[in-house]
Amino acid sequence: MSDVFASLVKQYSLGQSADRADWLLGAGMLSPGLKAKALRSLAAPGTAYDDPRLGKDPQQAHMGGYIETQQDNGGVHINSGIPNHAFYLTATAIGGNAWEKAGRIWYDAATGGKLAADATFADFAKLTATIAEDLYGTGTELDAVNNAWKSVGVL
């Protein structure tokens, strides 16, 4: 969630539409000389860096690569690439400013009181689809949400 909202704040502050954003978090933050463009990429999880000193970006973009681990608080950062990428796919499919429709769907899902503390990615995916339909009907937005979650292997 935090990566999605950080990306939305960045896009809003720069006045970038979904198709013009770089979808990178922490771009320009790492030392010069490192083979790294950012800390994370919502557009292409697992590609933000690949440097002998840092290692390779471990983020996953698909449930097929989901990592069961006790490290990283159960893999919250490693596996967050999956819902991050679903958001990216949703926002770019809807088009326009990501904070307007896709962002509203994610925000309402996160803050509307219907998401259990132990929710799975599938629970969140279903909730975002319900909210998309409630807000926008059965058109482009709902299709974008469902297709994104299918693309990352959650639905």
Segments where pLDDT lies below 50 for 5+ residues? none
Fraction of residues in β-strands: 5-15%
Overall structural class, as computed from helix and strand content, comes to mainly alpha
Rounded mean pLDDT score: 96
Distance between the termini: 18 Å
The profile of the biggest β sheet is:
2 strands, antiparallel
User: Order of strands in the sheet with the most strands?
Assistant: 1-2
Number of strands: 4
Supply the number of helical segments.
6
Radius of gyration: 15 Å
Question: Secondary-structure element order, as H and E?
Answer: HEEEEHHHHH
The dominant shape is globular
Helix content: 40-55%
Explain what the structure shows.
This protein is mainly alpha-helical. The protein is built from 6 helices and 4 strands, in the order H-E-E-E-E-H-H-H-H-H. The protein has helices at 2-14, 72-75, 81-94, 102-111, 121-136, 140-151, and strands at 24-25, 40-41, 50-51, 55-56. The strands form 2 sheets. Strands 1-2 form a two-stranded antiparallel sheet. The chain has a two-stranded antiparallel ribbon with strand order 3-4. A hairpin with a 3-residue loop joins strand 3 (50-51) and strand 4. Helix 5 (121-136) runs antiparallel to helix 6 (140-151). The longest helix is centred in the C-terminal third of the chain and has 16 residues, at 121-136. The chain is globular and about 50 Å long. The relative contact order is 0.14. The model has no long low-confidence stretch (mean pLDDT 96).
